[in-house]
Specification:
The protein has about 325 residues and is an all-alpha fold. It has a domain of about 180 residues: MetI-like (MetI-like fold, Orthogonal Bundle). It is about 75% helix and about 0% strand. It contains 13 helices and no strands. Helix 3 runs parallel beside helix 8 and helix 3 packs antiparallel against helix 10. The protein starts with a helix and ends with a helix. It holds the Pfam family BPD_transp_1.
Length: about 325
């Protein structure tokens, strides 16, 4: 009996050895295929990030090579003591919060509309993508012309409709510049939400809506109880991605206002650009970039571990 047990265990070990060897070969092959991508990420992402962190701890000036040496926390202190830092931080939070909220609301509304069985639905689904595919620089310049107080079409329409008494310089006034750029950013970015949410809507089982309707649930009730829960995963991903993308967005604000007037629309990315390219203070620019990067990394880990905890449940 013992001999039979020994033979059986020896046979099982003999079968397991080729399987283990095969798994090892597969892992080596996978590592070999991933190596070029890993090297590319190392060169294009990891090294620049490490260099930014390194530069943030040193004095560096683009026009004065003599400015060098270890700075410690001086660059961070320079940023925090800058009188423009807190207004720029508030502008960044405002710009990001309003943009993401507006994009999601408009994108969800458009997705719900395009999910209905209407005529020429395919045409409308193609048209809604147009703002997203227009390059930011071109879109920004076009909106500058549309909003121009002298010959802008939008000002003329608003005056004709009686909504305003006279043309306004929407991008040139302190109280409207940031809000105007935010609205333009919502216009450009909401199609991405529309496409993603529309795809998620197609996956909602029709039988659930039919059963809820038979039970007497109205349209709003079915939307809140059935549709929204099915959109939760896609919505969280979209919102998180766009919080990061919008917070680090430089192009739209720089093209349309360059952070003006009087820094009324200056955000942290614009401030980083001014530190580096106008004040030539690379150390302070890298310090502010490192602070922004740290905040984004913290958001990522909160989101990632939140998703893992929900998945565990």
């Amino acid at each position: 009996m013992a001999a039979l047990d020994f033979a059986a265990s020896d046979g099982a070990a003999a079968v397991a050895r080729p399987a283990a060897g095969r798994q090892a070969r597969l892992r080596r092959a996978a590592a070999l295929f991933l190596a070029p991508a890993a090297a590319l990420m190392l060169v294009l992402v990891a090294f620049p990030l490490a260099d930014v962190l390194w530069q943030s701890l040193h004095y560096a000036n683009l026009v004065d090579p003599a400015t060098s040496g270890f700075a410690g926390a001086d660059n961070y202190r320079t940023v925090l003591e800058d009188e423009d830092f807190l207004p720029a931080l508030w502008n960044t939070l405002t710009w990001t919060g309003l943009s993401v909220a507006g994009e999601y609301a408009l994108g969800l509304a458009a997705a719900l509309a395009l999910a209905q069985p209407i005529r020429a639905r395919a045409v409308f689904r193609g048209i809604v993508v147009v703002p997203w595919v227009i390059p930011i620089a071109i879109a920004g310049l076009n909106w500058m012309w549309l909003l121009n107080p002298d010959y802008g079409v939008l000002n003329a329409w608003l005056v004709d409709l009686g909504l305003i008494d006279h043309p306004r310089d929407w991008l040139g006034q302190v109280d409207t510049a940031l809000l105007t750029v935010t609205l333009v950013n919502i216009w450009r970015s909401f199609p991405f939400y529309t496409i993603s949410l529309l795809a998620a809507l197609q996956a909602v089982p029709r039988e659930l809506h039919e059963a809820a309707a038979i039970d007497g649930a109205g349209t709003l009730r079915r939307f809140l109880v059935i549709t929204l829960p099915h959109l939760k995963a896609v919505s969280l991903t979209l919102v998180f991605m766009h919080i990061v993308w919008t917070a680090i967005n430089f192009d739209f604000i720089w093209v349309m206002t360059q952070g003006g007037p009087l820094n009324a629309s200056q955000t942290l990315p614009v401030m980083i650009y001014r530190y580096a390219m106008q004040d030539f203070d690379v150390g302070a620019a890298c310090a502010l970039a490192s602070m922004s990067m740290g905040f984004m990394a913290a958001m990522f880990f909160v989101y990632f571990y939140g998703v893992r905890r929900r998945g565990g449940r």
